[in-house]
């Protein structure tokens, strides 16, 4: 985004204000006097602007028995709507029944009433001093006072559109409609925030809460405004009237073209133009933000730019959503509802083997960011397809240059992305498969279950069991039509996660002599590097210092990370072990540490913090219970949680991890970790279990909730210095609002705030047995398990 010098814009703005002062004054032929009204009827009357360019009145909604109270371009054949009244409670467009009336009463009250006379919308609760109303040639409808001042205007209450001459002062927002002809609230926002930043958001549809930002102006300050001036430029200006960010410029003249800018139903902020005096013409798009929305939206919760199980294509300024082979739209008239499978999915019944009933439909350059549940690398394309075929949960295998992602339904964030360079293999049932009929699947499974039950009753006879087993196999083979199918391929074993061995000279060159430092700790320093043959090129190179037992530390970290893979763990790409030179090469995390994300001035959203908490918990759950060798991290803190491009949390730094053998549950070792995050058992020479990580996570969770460090001596109130004590006091006295008092989004979600504080308090119990497991923590964070009321902080009761 190019920023322009402020001086020319001053002249433009001055000219715009002069023009606005001329055209914004109501003339006698467009004055709407007190006591005037309009009624919602087919082909009813309206109030035009002096030139007739705009009109205010009722517009019939297609295929519905209702009317919008709206403003529209009146000289254009399709009467394009630029404003409509909305319901204050939901933000949806207000649909008035036939016979409703909008009236400017004799006492100055401007309201909309239904056919029975009950008020359903009001422009302003104040009726004092209203002299008349007017529809202006700017597209602004105003209530005017006795001293010619605007008491209310539609420009201050926009729906999804802004017009030349309109200024939005922070905080303000535009809300997209649901579809082209459905004026209900959609799932996208253009918000000029309190901090001055102009941001495009998806929403937690059908709720109005912002979900994921996918474009912003990168400008911050107090008193900012979004201006669409009469020369056709759209920009953000500061309180001193200087332009700080150009959003759209080089537009044709507003004298010759009608113009509007809209947060469209597809999520793209577009500036449209229409030549005046050309009734046979059409609106054309002159500017798009973002340029390719399909590549911009990656939602953790939600379907992405299109609906679930569909993929997005952006072509010639327009977004379209499509279904892959084997899928069709749930509702062809509403593509936002996504796609469904046109076949019976693969059964996970352990008594059946259906892999041979499926094959793949290939799509180039297609993928579903952040939708995968398993990942492999250094594998072949055939291996990737086979491992998906043998997994009943796998719906799509995505392959690119030795990397393989397994993805299950519902698929989200789908798009065609040529730079990605990979391909997607959609698993679909073969056309001639007997299992296409859901009844066949039901009967076959039913027969299998009956045979298994019979086998159980006759279990005293080994011979009878063998006979039943053979009979069962024959019946299943017969029913599935196996005689006419190829034998399923043998499932490949999971590939060994081999790490690349780098030479020291390679890493010296890749880091430009270790010049750009990313961070440092007691035993290492991390540098940014560029390695051409690594996907994405950027890496983080961790250079370990020569200290006592450095070989053991090095071997522990390489061994730990080399045997793990999870979306919430930082991936180890390779290592260097040349004498005193011991280095680890990791994937590069562009958003840095969780500490810098949470503790800096710009507070992350409540939703982002919730997702980071869940992601970190899932990473720990994997280390504790799901990988081949149980791992205790021993140093969970915000500095050891990194964030990728999509703000997905990934646990890093296994250098202090203590590996446990399969048959072990605890170990004793020297105190490790960081002050403030260390569990009590470290200091009491007690056996160390995975519960030390649970304690550290509890402290981190409270930090995420409050966006502050666990200890802050700069806080004047000494009762608030130690976060875990203050959080418990706030919970005990039912004043959790104090923990998030400056966070509007969190205060709207106080039930979850309370649950998360309770989870944090459970995690930091003194007695390790009183703390939950990370599996229980994940279930509580995601709402699949109730959170019990925690005891006082010193707890010695085994609840878990």
What share of the residues does DSSP label as strand, in percent? 25-35%
The outline comes out as: globular
- What structural category do the secondary elements indicate? alpha+beta
Order of the strands making up the biggest sheet = 37-41-42-40-39-38
Oligomer: single chain
Fraction of helical residues: 10-25%
Count of helical segments? Answer: 14
Uncertain segments: 1-25, 434-497, 658-671, 794-799
Average pLDDT level: 80
CATH class of the largest domain: Mainly Alpha
How many strand elements?
46
Instruction: Provide the CATH architecture of the largest domain.
Output: Orthogonal Bundle
Question: Rg to the nearest angstrom?
Answer: 32 Å
Instruction: Domain count, please report it.
Output: 5
Distance between the termini: 54 Å
What is the assigned CATH homologous superfamily of the largest domain? Transferase(Phosphotransferase) domain 1
Looking at the structure, the CATH topology of the largest domain is Transferase(Phosphotransferase), domain 1
Walk me through this protein's architecture.
- There is one protein chain.
- The chain has 800 residues and is α+β, with helices and mostly antiparallel strands.
- It has 5 domains: 1-20 and 165-291, Bulb-type lectin domain (Agglutinin, subunit A), CATH 2.90.10; 48-156, Agglutinin, subunit A, CATH 2.90.10.10; 439-484; 500-587, Phosphorylase Kinase, domain 1; 594-781, Orthogonal Bundle (Transferase(Phosphotransferase), domain 1).
- It is 21% helix and 27% strand.
- The chain contains 14 helices and 46 strands.
- Helix 4 packs antiparallel against helix 5 (462-480), helix 9 runs antiparallel to helix 10 (691-706) and helix 9 packs antiparallel against helix 14 (774-781).
- The longest helix has 21 residues, at 606-626.
- The radius of gyration is 32 Å and the shape is globular.
- The two termini are 54 Å apart.
- Mean pLDDT is 80; it is low at 1-25, 434-497, 658-671 and 794-799.
